[in-house]
Amino acid sequence: MYRLVIALVIAPAIAHAYSAGSQFDADALGSGGGAGGIAFDGAPRWANHTCAVCHTDAASTIGVRLEADHPELFTDGWKPGMQYHLRVVLEDEHEGVAYTANGDMCGFTDETPFKPCNKNGFALEIDDATGAPKGTFAGVSNTACTTMTMPGQDAQPIANGTAITHVGAKNGQTSWDLCWTAPPAGAGALTAYLAVVDGNGGDGTAAFSADPEGDDTVAGAVPLAESGAAPPPPQSGGCAAGDGASGLVVVAAALLLIRRRRAIAALIACAAITGCVHVRPRERETLARRNMTFGPDPAEDELDLHMQEAREGSTGGYGSSGGGCGCN
Q1: CATH topology of domain 2-230+251-270
Q2: What is the 3-state secondary structure (H, E, C) of 35-98?
């Protein structure tokens, strides 16, 4: 079987997530997650939030890759209506590994001594250029895709089926199998948003068996072109760049490895940004923060202008500061 591995070369984020995938469908106030289903996988509809909104003190050393049974998904693009068997893989796990030996018989509060669990998890969705989810997700049972919740599944879709998360029933799990059926033709270029948590087993006690502190996380996005469709136009706007300026530089390398009679094609993408690039609307949240402005304190700016006018007898290009003696 040919399996394509996409290595997400990204800067891991600080961690915040949930101890079990089923909690994404739970009461937002009572059990975490959200009514109707919330998957903080970094997609625009979640304000680009990842697992880092709940988990804290991440070491930021883990990695993640997304695999598919059809390598052309990542090279030639997705085909309309085609069903893909995907796999999410957590790399370089280091948190909670001491509890992996407890197997799935762990986490019972009435057990003495208490046995902590090594719970890991993920969240994934695939969106179009407008941030709207595309395609449908399903779990995998006995290597077959199924829309029903079956024992032994690694993952299950959230309530409205637009994203998928871990089931959370297996201790020490570092890979999850799932299915995704591509949308009809015309959806254009898509993006797979993915976030993963490396759980540390809480503080090892029944009282805090799955607290979000100290877990590690990583998140990233994988572009998926539409097979046979024209590539998306290059970004433009934002600012002008001279002939010698460079924009977004993408370096991709494809490696073919033979392992246990399987050919694994690995595509590693690295991005280096110099010069000027266009900032998408969903990326402007940070730029809108007060500390990102040149003058974050309007009152202080007004005072500076007031003193400038009083001492120099001049008015800058920012308007007038108003009257006063200028001795303050």
Answers
A1: Immunoglobulin-like (2.60.40)
A2: CCCCCCCCCHHHCCCCCECCCECCCCCCEEEEEECCCHHHHCCECCCCEEEEEEEEECCCCCHH
